[in-house]
Amino acid sequence: MLKEAITETDKRIDKALLAQQALQLSALEIGRLRRVQNGIAGVSGLRGVKSMELLKFSDRGTGLAFNLDSEEVGVVLLSHGSGLKAGTEVRRTGRVVGVPVGLGLLGRVINGLGMPLDDKGPVKSAGYWPIERKAPDILDRSPVTEPLETGIKAIDALIPIGRGQRQLILGDRQTGKTAIAVDTILNQRDKNVICIYCSIGQRGTAVAQVIDTLRQHHALSYCVVVVAPAESAAGLQFITPYAATTIAEYLMAQGRNVVVVYDDLTRHAHAYRELSLLLRRPPGREAYPGDIFYIHSRLLERATHLTSQRGGGSLTALPIIETQAQNLSAYIPTNLISITDGQIYLSPDLFKKGELPAVDIGKSVSRVGGKAQLPAYRDIVGELRLAYTQFEELETFSRFGTRLDERTRNAIRRGRRVREILKQNETESLTASEQIAVLFAVNAGFFDDMPLEQVITVEHEICLGLNQNLQVQCKKINSGKLLDSEDKEKIREMCRQVFSKVKSEG
Predict the structure, then answer these.
(1) Mean pLDDT of the chain
(2) Which of 261, 171, 252, 248 is nearest to 214 (CA)?
(3) How do residues 339-354 score in pLDDT, each as one tens digit?
(4) CA gap 160, 207 in Å, rounded
């Protein structure tokens, strides 16, 4: 009898505990909307709300808890908030804003909340990660040692990028910034690299054009496109780059190499400035709030190359920003230049002259990628960057009509051929071995007496001859080995044959 009584008592206690837990789980904290305007809202009654927590406005959209003031919560709307009015019920979700992650996102076009925009049905995810995550610790990071090949001669040879690096792309409007990023994505095909293109505040037609380019070159299979169009709410534009980085971090944690393109962070800064001013945060320089540096630094610090103990994956960040009238000393450009590991500057003057890609070698730099560059580049290219910069100065000096010595005339003649060689059409990438062969021919003086209009034709012939006759040397270059004297002699002989053929036909 005693055992039965004890058992019955235990059952009652268990039922009481379950009922209490169910009561606790069903308890909701509900607030009321006090005001709503231009993408932000003021909510009262949510005493326990957390920073960056996702809030629901009945069935009329969601918002992000941003300002936790004593009297009300400043909420950033993640939609335009149509139908919202004072008195609307606001509920806590108990979780910070996040995004679905996983390989199921490859080939999809989504927004910053993970909702599909491509009419292909629901997104298949492996989990749900918060968009704001702590950057990897210093001890979990490895040096950048592997190259990220863009297929663009001016970058791979002179401003190399490594996997795990943060390389800024900046320039005035319509100078080819997005084109360089898209070419980099296209060049990752069959290189075991996953690419994420994050569009922030761009016109719908511009985003559609990028997606169409990726589709035409069969690149969508290894890409995720995260979009916050210009007509979307400022709050959605603000969270989108963080969501794209979280998707990349999940893949990096699986040991994969990922590239994220942020196009562009200037519009991201504009969206944050708009939200901050509406939430009454004090403006500072150029009306940006004081923490504008922090929103970009905490985003880009998440890019890294992990140690082998953490899987060895990498996340390479390619942020894009737009300058005004070539002003590199403006607030946002100086912020991003100080955060990143180098920059690729595109000059509108070079763009107008037809020197595409319009990369200004003198104002561009890579502080990390040289250590990850293939050894054959360092051996063949050598002092090409310095020589090219000196050539530009000599060419400017020669325009004054000064009499020049023979050495200076030769330097200018070769510099003009190098400039012609560095020109490259959009979506026409070159392999590392092709680039090295062409630059070897330039350094060896084969192009010195070649008319400028024939340089591109000869370049194509060199690439063709290399792929047909020197496959052993190509494998050496791509595997990270140095070319010995015998290899260089074979490339030199192939160049002689090509130039002899061109001259005989010309």
Answers:
(1) 90
(2) 261
(3) 999 999 999 999 999 9
(4) 27
Question: How far is Cα of residue 369 from the mean position of the Cα atoms in its chain?
Answer: 15
**So which residues are the catalytic ones?**
367
The single residue listed with the structure tokens 């492996």 is: 126
Cβ-based burial of 79 (10 A; exposed 0-12, middle 13-18, buried ≥19): middle
- The residues, ordered by sequence, that sit 6+ positions from 407 with a Cβ below 8 Å of its Cβ are none
What is d(CA 56, CA 333) in angstroms, rounded to the nearest whole number? Answer: 36
pLDDT of 312 reads 96
Beta carbons within 8 Å of 214's beta carbon, 6+ residues apart: 182, 185, 186, 197, 220, 223, 225
* Tokens 């070698």 sit on residue: 361
Report the distance separating Cα 435 and Cα 154, nearest Å. 10
Other residues' Cβ atoms within 10 Å of the Cβ of residue 412: 16
Structure tokens at 14: 């268990």
Give the residue from 236, 329, 324, 237 showing the smallest Cα distance to 285: 329
- Residue 493, both tokens: 């002989």
pLDDT in tens, 50-63: 989 999 998 778 99
Q: pTM of the prediction?
A: 0.91
pLDDT tens-place string over residues 421-444: 999 999 999 999 999 999 999 988
